[in-house]
Every structure is written in structure tokens, then in C-alpha cells.
Design brief:
- By secondary structure, the chain is mostly beta strands.
- The chain has two domains: 108 residues, Hexapeptide repeat proteins (UDP N-Acetylglucosamine Acyltransferase, domain 1, 3 Solenoid); 97 residues, UDP N-Acetylglucosamine Acyltransferase, domain 1 (3 Solenoid).
- 0% of the residues lie in helices and 30% in strands.
- A twelve-stranded mixed beta sheet has the order 3-6-9-12-15-18-21-24-27-30-32-33, with no helix packed on it.
């Protein structure tokens, strides 16, 4: 036997299954999908039409809770839902309780945790980590090796450059008080964060605001402003030609 498909799962017409892949109980795979070699699709996962799962990827993985976990509560989660046309790259991990919108890319080696939603047409780049209880909008781009901390919200058309780091704990892991104040970041519609920037807990990047490369954001970034420096300060307006409404995209009013 070169693969395992549980008899209680369903595989759509025209779907191709790779060598040594595992399809667990209750999985539903739409028509025209491709599941790579050694990929694992865990119990109950639902996949739409034309989904591609590359070699070694894991979809629907149950979350783990260590005895000292601060943001993982150990409660049960719903099966993963993978929208039509999604691509999940080699060795990527998409947890149970995650919902990916249509035509979303999760690139090689990325990790998308439980209780995360990702809107249609978004890109989760190579090696990106999206922690639990995050909301990612439509047409977002999270570039290679960025880190999105738990309890964060990214609205539509957000751009996160490579190597961006975000945080949700101002107490840096000490005192019981910290459990009352976990707070991820918020990036409003069209907000952009440059390479290697650091965003502190609870900070908001406003609509069409820019946090420059290498900046450390310790205060909220106002709408349409460029924030630079350590700590970051507003230095100028975002150029008019870069604003969302000037891009000619159909989804932008």
C-alpha cells in the first residue's frame, strides 16, 4: 500500500494523490485537487475544488498545549477549511481550526495556527508563522520569514515585508498580570510594514500608513503617515500615488 485513504473520506473526481500520502477519516476533497507525496490531511478537513497540497505538507493538524503555554487553551477546534484554488507548499503546516479563503497561497515551510482566518487571494510567504487567534484579510501579502503574533488582526490589502516581528506581551513572560493583557497588533486596511520592523503589543498601524524598514513602533501609526526610526515617529505623509484608492484595484473603492 503506497497511500492511505480512510473509507469514510471522499475524494473528488480528477483529484490526484501522491505516494505515501495519508487522508484521514471524514476528509472531504473537492474535484481536480492534487495532494503531494507524504502529505497528511487530518480528520474532518474540507478542501474545495482545485486545491494543491505539496509534498510533506500537513493540513488540519491538532494544536499542541504545553503545560506552561500562555496563549494555547487546549480547547477543541473545528476541522480545517481550505477554499477552492488554494496552494499549500512543501512542508507547510495548516492547523485544525484554520480557514483559508479562495486562491490563498501558503508557501513552503509556513505555519498557520488554529483559530486563524485568512481572506481570499492572500499570500502567506515562505517560512511565515501566523500564530493562533489571528484574522488576516483579503489580498494580503505576508512576505518570507515574518512573524504574526497571536491575537492580531490584519485587514484587507495589508503588506508585511520579510523579517517583520510582532509581539503581544508587554510583560515579556513574567508575572500573572500579563495574562490579563495579551494583545496582538492591528494593521488597518492598506497598512504596510517594511523589512525588519518591530511592532510592539497592542499597536495599531492605520489605514494606508507605512512603518519603515527597521523601525520600532511603540505608538500607533496614524492613517496615511510614514513612521520611521527607533522609536518610530511620523515623518511625512504617504505619497498620494501610493494610496489604495489610486491603485486601480477592483476591490478598492
Amino acid at each position: 500500500m503506497d497511500r492511505y485513504v480512510d473509507p469514510d473520506s471522499s475524494v473528488g473526481e480528477g483529484t490526484v494523490l501522491g505516494q505515501f500520502c495519508v487522508i484521514e477519516r471524514g476528509v472531504s476533497i473537492g474535484p481536480g485537487c492534487a495532494v503531494g507525496n507524504c502529505a497528511v490531511i487530518h480528520e474532518g478537513t474540507r478542501m474545495g475544488e482545485g486545491v494543491r497540497i505539496d509534498d510533506g505538507a500537513v493540513v488540519g493538524k491538532l494544536p499542541m498545549k504545553a503545560s506552561i503555554s500562555a496563549t494555547t487553551d487546549g480547547s477543541s477546534v473545528e476541522p480545517a477549511v481550505i477554499g477552492a484554488g488554494c496552494i499549500i507548499g512543501a512542508c507547510a503546516v495548516v492547523y485544525a481550526g484554520c480557514e483559508l479563503g479562495e486562491d490563498t497561497l501558503v508557501a513552503d515551510l509556513a505555519s498557520v495556527r488554529e483559530n486563524v482566518t485568512v481572506g481570499d487571494h492572500s499570500i502567506i510567504g515562505r517560512g511565515v508563522t501566523v500564530e493562533n487567534r489571528c484574522s488576516i484579510g483579503r489580498y494580503c501579502k505576508l512576505e518570507s520569514e515574518c512573524y504574526i503574533t497571536a491575537y492580531s488582526t490584519l485587514e484587507d490589502r495589508v503588506f508585511i515585508a520579510p523579517g517583520v516581528v510582532t509581539s503581544n506581551d508587554n510583560y515579556i513572560g513574567r508575572t500573572e498580570e500579563r495574562f490579563k493583557h495579551f494583545n496582538g497588533i492591528t494593521v488597518k486596511r492598506g497598512g504596510r510594514i517594511g523589512a525588519g520592523a518591530t511592532i510592539l503589543p497592542g499597536r495599531t498601524v492605520g489605514c494606508d500608513a507605512v512603518v519603515a524598514a527597521g523601525a520600532v513602533l511603540t505608538q500607533d501609526a496614524p492613517d496615511g503617515k510614514v513612521m520611521m526610526g527607533v522609536p518610530a515617529r511620523a515623518v511625512r505623509d504617504v505619497p498620494e500615488e501610493q494610496l489604495l484608492h489610486r491603485q486601480g484595484w477592483d476591490d478598492v473603492s
